[in-house]
Automatic annotation (TrEMBL), chains A, B:
Homodimer. One of its GO terms (molecular function) is phosphoribosylaminoimidazole carboxylase activity. Keywords: ATP-binding, Ligase, Nucleotide-binding, Purine biosynthesis. InterPro entries: ATP-grasp, ATP-grasp_carboxylate-amine, ATP_grasp_subdomain_1, PreATP-grasp_dom_sf, PurK, PurK_C, PurT/PurK_preATP-grasp, Rudment_hybrid_motif. GO terms for biological process: 'de novo' IMP biosynthetic process. This is N5-carboxyaminoimidazole ribonucleotide synthase. It comes from the Bacteria. It comes from Pseudomonas delhiensis. It is an enzyme of class 6 (ligase). It catalyses: 5-amino-1-(5-phospho-beta-D-ribosyl)imidazole + hydrogencarbonate + ATP = 5-carboxyamino-1-(5-phospho-D-ribosyl)imidazole + ADP + phosphate + 2 H(+). The keyword Ligase applies. Pathway: Purine metabolism; IMP biosynthesis via de novo pathway; 5-amino-1-(5-phospho-D-ribosyl)imidazole-4-carboxylate from 5-amino-1-(5-phospho-D-ribosyl)imidazole (N5-CAIR route): step 1/2.
């Protein structure tokens, strides 16, 4: 079976590492000449709207999936004429647009911060008044890793903010005084069977994920599964989806979903029976899902900008390196480490060792 | 770091799957147009004695290692002029020749079946008389998976046997009434640090490995480590080496060594903290070795001739599929499954499930 992937970055790379042992081949469509997945599959170097190359991809592969959600809707629609596409165009349409996404949460009874559609500065002025400050203005589409958003704390921040984000459709979200950020990675098969990984506690810095720690028997696991299950069924979703929540007052408020394998699920490569990457491929290929049970106690730390010296990373016990083979650049995710330890105390010590290496010790 | 591998079969494929996350790139030199590792690295399609292409490989990579031991000595010597080669030419020279290998065992005080060098039918007649029957005649080089050998049970089997194996240098080995076959996979770093995986119990059929079960606290572990350690130090070995033993009268008799990652170590991908593939690469690249500790209870079953339907393999709990992407052909190793279970009773049940799929149930 040959899998087409839109995007050829580290997520594509890890999909291929998981799928090759299942007998799958891969083709990645990505305009970047140095797309790091190309070491592990065919690289179709083309723009996402290049119909000739999209057609070539569709002709070569058995199905198409995505590495990121900001794929033009036309790309998905075009591909869908020729080849099965998972997740579906309709699921992507909602997941890639914060307004559609939040509206769906509301419709499904999933708590989410107050939000308003912003098409102009006048919309923003009105919404800032009704929702109150602080609040966060976010572009409806194309935001990631803290990009395409601005925190509005005072009235001065509101003035001109719509233009500052490019005068594109936005939403304003009420600021949530959360006590923690957690995410749930789930997988849904073609036949609707759904499995959930354990809730993960995430720590961000400057909008970029730094640390994920997998939990055991988290008191909010069942609630999170309930919420995520509603979304998966609503979207008739196929594949892996990640759902980010704020922990607020002992409950959960929905932040956003990502219709793909997710950074907060990277720990599953070593830390669970079947990784998010393998489970995504099993789901889209119509194969039985794998177990999402934990193996040991795990955490994931991102390497941002550079990977520390490999010999030093590998000298840390319980540490598994994932180097993405990308050029180092400030603010860029270029690798991660998974720690899988026998108990939480050991895990905590190991996290300290990796943090010391990346200058956080 | 770019690694050159002589050979591009499933061992090369699994080396790349283990090394890519360490930031390594791979080039495989293999004459086969369909070498299955080519999905995961550059394929230099050339004969092992093609000096132009060997030179190209040497120029492209930081070091060279091997997927199999039957590489012409001239190939290794040629490469060694231009690039570091691990394991060394001298280690390969001994490991690829059963006479040198057994002589080394004897020199190091490692028990091994009685053996004799056979250069002619007259040598064979004399050795069969002194060693006694049954005995096994094996070519000194190029044997694998039961190929290049003949069991001699009666006097009639001896007559003409030398010609039958091609009138090439052979050894005759006394038949050992073993109660089991075990192997120890070990890794030795450039600085001499050595680590051992747990002893594995192996079951062969028609000379081909079918089932490996990793042991816990095997009573012969320390003895095996002692023997293997002697060989590693003698050869000043760098990388992974597998040592196969017969269990005889509660002790061990050396069968043979393989100077490479080995089929009986495939279970380590899921079943140990750091797989034999990653540890081989860590060793040859001069990186710190990884832990050889077990994770759960593991077994490996080979898929010979064909891989059972993927959906049926993946439906088995605790089962991890490794499809080599090779054309199916009778007698060919085309994949394997690792089972990693929480206890031995569960593992035994799972082995039965996989065996049922491959028609052994």
């Amino acid at each position: 079976m040959k899998i087409g992937v839109i995007g050829g970055g580290q997520l594509g790379r890890m999909l291929s590492l998981a799928g090759t042992p299942l007998g799958m081949d891969f083709a990645f469509l990505d305009p970047a000449p140095d797309a790091c997945a190309q070491a592990l599959g065919e690289h179709i170097r083309a723009d996402y709207s290049d119909q000739d190359h999209l057609r070539q991809l569709a002709d070569e592969v058995d199905l198409v999936t995505f590495e990121f959600e900001s794929v033009p809707a036309e790309t998905v629609a075009f591909l869908s004429q020729f080849v099965p596409v998972y997740p579906s165009a309709s699921a992507l349409r909602i997941a890639r647009d914060r307004w559609f996404e939040k509206s769906m949460f509301k419709e499904l009874g999933i708590p989410t911060p107050a939000f308003a559609d912003i098409q102009s500065q006048a919309d923003l002025d009105a919404a800032a008044a009704s929702i109150g400050l602080p609040a966060v203005l976010k572009t409806r589409t194309l935001g990631y890793d803290g990009k395409g958003q601005k925190v509005l704390r005072k009235a001065e921040d509101v003035a001109g903010a719509f233009a500052e984000l490019g005068s594109v459709p936005c939403i304003l979200e009420g600021f949530v005084p959360f006590t923690g950020e957690v995410s749930l990675v789930a997988v849904r098969a073609r036949d609707g069977e759904t499995r959930f990984y354990p809730l993960v506690h995430n720590t961000h810095e400057n909008g970029i994920l730094r640390l994920s720690v997998a939990s055991s028997a988290h008191p909010l696991q069942a609630l999170a599964e309930d919420y995520v299950g509603r979304v998966l069924d609503k979207l008739d979703y196929v594949g892996v989806l990640a759902f980010e929540f704020f922990e607020v007052d002992g409950g959960l408020k929905a932040n956003e979903i990502a219709p793909r394998v997710h950074n907060s699920g990277h720990w599953t490569i070593e830390g669970s029976e079947c990784s998010q990457f393998e489970n995504h491929l099993r789901a889209v290929a119509g194969l039985p899902l794998g177990s999402t049970a934990k193996v040991g106690e795990s955490a994931m730390l991102n390497f941002i900008g550079e990977v520390p010296p490999v010999d030093q990373v590998l000298a840390i016990a319980d540490c598994h390196l994932h180097h993405y083979g990308k050029a180092f650049k400030a603010g860029r995710k270029v690798g991660h480490a998974t720690l899988r330890s026998k108990d939480l105390a050991t895990l905590k010590a190991r996290i300290g060792e990796v943090e010391a290496l990346i200058g956080k010790g």
